[in-house]
Amino acid sequence: MNCMIKAVIFDLDNTLIDFMRMKEISCDAAISAMIDAGLNVDKGRAMKELFSLYDEYGLEDRMIFQKFLKKMAKKVDYEVLASGIVAYRRVRAGFLEPYPHVGEVLFELKRRGVKLAIVSDAPRLKAWIRLVSMKINHLFDAVVTFDDTKKLKPSTMPFKAAFKQLKTDPNECLMVGDRPERDIEGAKKLGMLTCFAKYGNPKAKSLNADYEINDIKELLEIIIMQQSS
User: Is residue 100 helix, strand or coil?
Assistant: First the structure.
C-alpha cells in the first residue's frame, strides 16, 4: 500500500499515556488510604480483587470502589470510600504524563503537515481531561470518544467519525494503537494502514499490523519513508 499518509489516528490509553501503570499506582494509593481509614483487608489480596472487578466491569467503571467495598467488607463505609477516592485522584492527577517522545513526535508530525486524531473507547470527559493534563490537546484535529458514537472499537463507526472530521479517506490514514483486537482489527476493516504500539502492550501479538513499534519515536521513520516514496 503506497498511498501518502495524510493523517495519523491514535488510540489514547497505553498508546500516548501509560494508562495501566497510572491505574496500578493510583489504585495502590487508594487501597492504602482505605486501610488507613479502617478497612480490614490484606493489601495484596485487595489489589487482586479490585482488578478482578475492573476486568468484570471495565476500567472506566465509576462505581468500582463501591463494588469493591461491598465485596470486601459487605458494606460501603463512606469515610473509607472517600479516603480511597481522594487518594486515587491525587495520585492519578500527578501521574498523567505522556510516554517518552510523544510530544516531540506529535509536534514533528504537525510540522510535516500530517493531521492528527484520537479515537478512544474512553468517555468524552475523561479523554479530554487526559489530553489537557498532558498539554497535547491543542495538537489534534479530531477527537472521537465512546460518547460520540456509543460504539467501541473494533466497530468501524468511531473510525468513520474521525475520517469525517479530518476530511480524509481511510487509505490516507495510519492507525496507531496497543490493542490489536480493537485498534488494528477495526482499522483494517476500512483499509487503513496500521501500526501496533507494542510498547503499550508487550505481551500481545500484532495481528498482521503493517508496522510494529517499540517506541513512538519510530513512527517518524514510517512517516518519513511514506512521504519520500
Answer: coil
Query: Domain coordinates of the chain in residue numbers?
Result: 7-17+98-228, 20-95
- 177 CB-near residues (< 8 Å, 6+ apart): 10, 11, 15, 153, 183, 184, 187, 194, 195, 196, 197
Upstream peptide bond of 180 is cis (omega within 30 degrees of 0): no
Query: Domain 7-17+98-228 has what CATH class?
Result: alpha beta
| Measured distance between the N- and C-terminal CA atoms of the chain, rounded to whole angstroms | 11
The confidence band for 90, taking pLDDT boundaries of 50, 70 and 90, is: very high
Q: How far apart are CA 162 and CA 130, in angstroms?
A: 19
pLDDT tens, 40-55? 999 999 999 999 999 9
What CATH architecture is 20-95? Answer: Orthogonal Bundle (1.10)
Phi, psi of 13 (to 5 degrees): -75, 130
Cell numbers describing residue 10? 491514535
For the chain, list the strands marked E by DSSP: 7-10, 115-119, 142-144, 173-177, 193-197, 211-213
List, for residues 100-125, the tens digit of each pLDDT value: 999 999 999 999 999 999 999 999 99
| One-letter amino acid for residue 163 of the chain | F
CA 77 to chain centre: 31
For residue 147, pLDDT beyond 90: yes
Per-residue pLDDT, averaged over 193-213, amounts to 93
